[in-house]
Amino acid sequence: MTEKQQSEPAQMTLPTVTNVEIYSSLEREDLHSGKNSMNTSQKKSWLADFTQEHLPANRLRSNEDDMSNKFLSTSTSRRYKKRHSKQKIKVSRSIHAKLNHTQRKLAKDLITSQNQKYSTYIPLRRLWTSYIQDLMSVDMSKVTAPVFMTLAQKMMKADLHGCPLTVRRSKCPGYVGVEGIVIQETRNMFTLICQDDKVRCIPKANSVFTTVLQNVVFTIHGNQFLVRPGERAAKKFKAKSTIDL
Amino acid sequence: MGKDNTRFLHKEIFQRVNFLHQAANLVLKTDPSNIELCQHYISTMRLVAEKHVIRISPSIKRTFCKSCNVVLVPGQTARIRGRSKSEPHTVVTCKICGAIKRFMWRKVYELWSEKQEAWIDANKREKKS
């Protein structure tokens, strides 16, 4: 233990010739004077003295009394170290245990790794349009204001996989104008496939999306949509007078 | 529209479950290598049904894997075998994760939705309205 204590201040210095000098200037009694039996505060003060004595002058600022930031830890007992290392392991394990098998699999990046083509998702878009027309069950060409409210309500609860989306506004200018089919919706992201066969992940936060159904334009405020797609149906949306962005 | 709602609760949710199931099938059909997306659709479908406390119909429920949420297509993602040991049954094995589904060949077995008891509830509701 004593060896460890004394080597710590040596580590702090630069690995130059001074290192050797420090080791050579160590006194015999410093090594074998039973520093193990001291308690924590004694160890601290001893270490402070030691560092003041042996550190090169350029490392010491003038009138600096507190030396505790010059060495690492004073508690060298095995039990203390063991406890701390165990705690770290526990934390990491619990995070891992929370994810089940499927979630761990889904946590990998899903589609971006593969070569995707826009044309393969056209049937999905067609399926979605038929689904949404079935859901709305209203003739889109003559929509009045009260009907539109119920349509908006339904649109909130509808599924967006396969929906053609356009980014209208965003805090990040690079996302503005991106147009594509939603192939995946997660809590914070829309994954779009664009016409140039590229998969783009666009965060919902701080952007505004639009969809066009025949002649009705729906605007989706991404900040209000930060929910998992499955949970969104059960969520109650509150009408807000002002919307950021 | 009001009458429709009393007779058919959660219509939108059933439509959504239906759509997601079709989408998952479609994705797997158009691009057989895209298993992850199929799993994502089925998992959202299950989540939607779970949140609204809706029973997924057995005809849909038997077509996906319980543990990895992939649509079971015979020959592609599933292996189907008949076994006669102990009691004759069909075994459906998921090729992705290896989970097993077993269906017994019982003559007397009847699905809940096909039983008479399941229908009484709906009839009563109709009479009330």
From TrEMBL, chain A:
Q: Where in the cell is it found?
A: Nucleus, Nucleolus
Task: Tell me the domain of life.
Answer: Eukaryota
Question: Which InterPro entries does UniProt cross-reference here?
Answer: RNase_P/MRP_Rpp29-subunit, RNase_P/MRP_Rpp29_sf, RNP1, Rof/RNase_P-like, Rpp29/RNP1
Segments carrying the region annotation (Disordered) are 57-91
Q: Name one GO molecular function term.
A: ribonuclease P RNA binding
What GO cellular component is one of the record's annotations?
A: ribonuclease P complex
Gene Ontology BP annotations = rRNA processing; tRNA 5'-leader removal
**What Pfam families is this protein classified in?**
RNase_P-MRP_p29
**Keywords in UniProt for this one?**
Cytoplasm, Endonuclease, Hydrolase, Nuclease, Nucleus, Phosphoprotein, tRNA processing
Where does the record place Basic residues bias? 78-91
Oligomeric form and interacting partners: Component of nuclear RNase P and RNase MRP ribonucleoproteins. RNase P consists of a catalytic RNA moiety and 10 different protein chains; POP1, POP4, POP5, POP7, RPP14, RPP21, RPP25, RPP30, RPP38 and RPP40. Within the RNase P complex, POP1, POP7 and RPP25 form the 'finger' subcomplex, POP5, RPP14, RPP40 and homodimeric RPP30 form the 'palm' subcomplex, and RPP21, POP4 and RPP38 form the 'wrist' subcomplex. All subunits of the RNase P complex interact with the catalytic RNA. Several subunits of RNase P are also part of the RNase MRP complex.
Q: What does this protein do?
A: Component of ribonuclease P, a ribonucleoprotein complex that generates mature tRNA molecules by cleaving their 5'-ends.
Q: Which family does it belong to?
A: Belongs to the eukaryotic/archaeal RNase P protein component 1 family.
Can you name this protein? Ribonuclease P protein subunit p29
Automatic annotation (TrEMBL), chain B:
Q: Does the keyword Cytoplasm apply?
A: yes
This protein's UniProt keywords: Cytoplasm, Endonuclease, Hydrolase, Metal-binding, Nuclease, tRNA processing, Zinc
Q: Extract the InterPro entries matched here.
A: RNP4 (IPR016432), Rpr2/Snm1/Rpp21 (IPR007175)
**What GO molecular-function term can you cite, just one?**
metal ion binding
Q: Name one GO cellular component term.
A: nucleolar ribonuclease P complex
Q: Which Gene3D superfamilies match?
A: 6.20.50.20
Gene Ontology terms describing biological process: tRNA 5'-leader removal
Instruction: Provide the leader sequence positions.
Output: none
Transmembrane stretches in the record are none
Q: Which PANTHER family match?
A: RIBONUCLEASE P PROTEIN SUBUNIT P21, RIBONUCLEASE P SUBUNIT P21
State the similarity comment: Belongs to the eukaryotic/archaeal RNase P protein component 4 family.
Name the chain's protein. Ribonuclease p protein component 4
